[in-house]
């Protein structure tokens, strides 16, 4: 029998692909993309946040610092091979704030 109850929503929600791991709302668009990927967040309280781009095999292709004072950040993806990529947004401590997939099509 469960006797303890949590009265507050947990800060960490879950770590499944496409889910945000804290209260910050982070959106990646357009998806699929052909040139520029936009990273939009309502608030980014993490000073040392970074955008990480991986191949599906786990090879890190890009590590780009995100400016916490901007609400929309543009990531230039020109030059990638068409395909599926994994995106991670992490804070300065390495905690994952968001993990998602994008499809790159050069057209």
Description:
It is a single chain. This protein has no helices and seven strands. It has 107 residues and is an all-beta fold. It has one domain (26-104): Immunoglobulin-like (Sandwich). A four-stranded antiparallel beta sheet has the order 4-3-6-7, with no helix packed on it. A three-stranded antiparallel beta sheet has the order 1-2-5, with no helix packed on it. It has strands at residues 26-29, 36-41, 50-55, 60-65, 72-76, 83-90, 96-104.
Q: In the CATH classification, which architecture applies?
A: Sandwich
Helix content percent band: under 10%
Number of helices: 0
The fold-level CATH name is Immunoglobulin-like
CATH class, named Mainly Beta
Mean pLDDT: 79
CATH superfamily: Immunoglobulins
Termini Cα gap: 57 Å
For the biggest sheet, the summary is:
4 strands, antiparallel
Strand count: 7
Output the structural class: mainly beta
The outline comes out as globular
Order of helices and strands: EEEEEEE
- The low-confidence parts are 1-23
Spatial strand arrangement across the major sheet: 4-3-6-7
The radius of gyration is 15 Å
Strand content: 35-45%
Keywords:
single chain; 107 residues; mainly beta; Immunoglobulin-like; four-stranded antiparallel β-sheet; three-stranded antiparallel β-sheet; 0% helix; globular; disordered N terminus
């Amino acid at each position: 029998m469960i006797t303890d109850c949590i009265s507050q929503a947990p800060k960490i929600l879950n770590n499944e692909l496409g889910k945000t791991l804290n209260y910050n709302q982070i959106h990646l668009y357009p998806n699929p993309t052909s040139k520029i990927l936009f990273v939009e967040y309502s608030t980014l309280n993490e000073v040392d946040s970074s955008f990480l781009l991986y191949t599906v095999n786990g090879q890190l292709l890009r590590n780009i610092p995100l400016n916490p004072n901007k609400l929309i950040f543009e990531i230039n993806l020109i030059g990638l091979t068409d395909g599926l990529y994994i995106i991670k947004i992490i804070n300065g401590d390495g905690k994952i704030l968001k993990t998602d997939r994008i499809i790159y099509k050069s057209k």
